[in-house]
Design brief:
The complex is a heterodimer.
Chain A: E1 4-7, E2 10-14, E3 19-25, E4 32-38, E5 45-51, E6 56-59, E7 62-67, E8 72-77, E9 86-92, E10 104-105, E11 109-114
Parallel strand pairs in A: 2-11
Antiparallel strand pairs in A: 1-3, 3-8, 4-5, 4-9, 6-7, 7-8, 9-10, 9-11
Chain B: E1 5-7, E2 10-13, E3 19-24, E4 31-37, E5 44-50, E6 53-57, E7 64-68, E8 74-78, E9 87-94, E10 108-109, E11 113-117
Parallel strand pairs in B: 2-11
Antiparallel strand pairs in B: 1-3, 3-8, 4-5, 4-9, 5-6, 7-8, 9-10, 9-11
Classes of the chains: A mainly beta, B mainly beta.
């Protein structure tokens, strides 16, 4: 069945250092890969996304890369700050006008930024 | 422009009871998806509604049912509650008509309903 695997489950980095979270997906038809940040007790919030026709996307300190052949995608956060501490979820989806577009989430990575 | 809203915020029920959760999609959105997020886990897809019909369903038993109204709002019903149904229930909305456009793929999440089953 459809599955998204995410590693690591926990990650602690020194403030200012970089953090990398990696995911793999099983459904080769997936064409949209969002990343969500979830703070305690709050809703998941989209922080960046990438479509299958793009290999890399960057937004300030956040970047995502996609390797369709290997079915791998990764989140990179540079110059980490205390407010980056949260749980991060990778996800895969295949939206289409004539098809339902469920999001398959990874199991999450708890990122802690050490001062 | 209101985002996705859900009600109630919190709910406490006992085993065997039934519960109804409500969701109003973001203005202009016609599709509503429901997710269950158990503590410490990622959200799990329950089902999705558009054009007032269930279009796709995840691995959830028939105790979980839903409905979508002509104004695109939606309800999630859970019968015969079990302790394991305790979770954060998230509603997400999207616009199928925008698929193919720059913002057409994104699903917007509501704040969730925290259900506790005792």
């Amino acid at each position: 069945g459809e599955n998204v695997e995410q590693h690591p489950s926990t990650l602690s980095v020194q403030e200012g250092d970089s953090a990398v979270i990696k995911c793999t997906y099983s459904d080769s038809a997936s064409n949209y890969f969002p990343w969500y940040k979830q703070e305690l007790g709050k809703r998941p919030q989209l922080i960046i996304d990438i479509r299958s026709n793009v290999g890399e996307k960057k937004d300030q300190r956040i970047a995502v890369t996609l390797n369709k052949t290997a079915k791998h995608f990764s989140l990179h956060i540079t110059e980490t700050q205390p407010e980056d501490s949260a749980v991060y979820f990778c996800a895969a989806s295949r939206p289409g006008y004539s098809s339902a577009s469920k999001i398959i989430f990874g199991s999450g990575t708890r990122l802690s930024i050490r001062p | 422009d209101a985002g996705v809203t859900q009600s109630p915020t919190h709910l406490i029920k006992t085993r065997g009871q039934q519960v109804t959760l409500r969701c109003s999609p973001k203005s202009g959105h016609d599709t509503v998806s429901w997710y269950q997020q158990a503590l410490g886990q990622g959200p799990q897809f329950i089902f999705q509604y558009y054009e007032e019909e269930e279009r796709q369903r995840g691995n959830f038993p028939d105790r979980f049912s839903g409905h979508q109204f002509p104004n695109y709002s939606s309800e999630l019903n859970v019968n015969a509650l079990l302790l394991g149904d305790s979770a954060l229930y998230l509603c997400a909305s999207s616009d199928r008509g925008a698929v193919g456009l720059a913002l057409g793929y994104e699903q917007f999440f509501g704040p969730g309903t925290r259900l506790t089953v005792l």
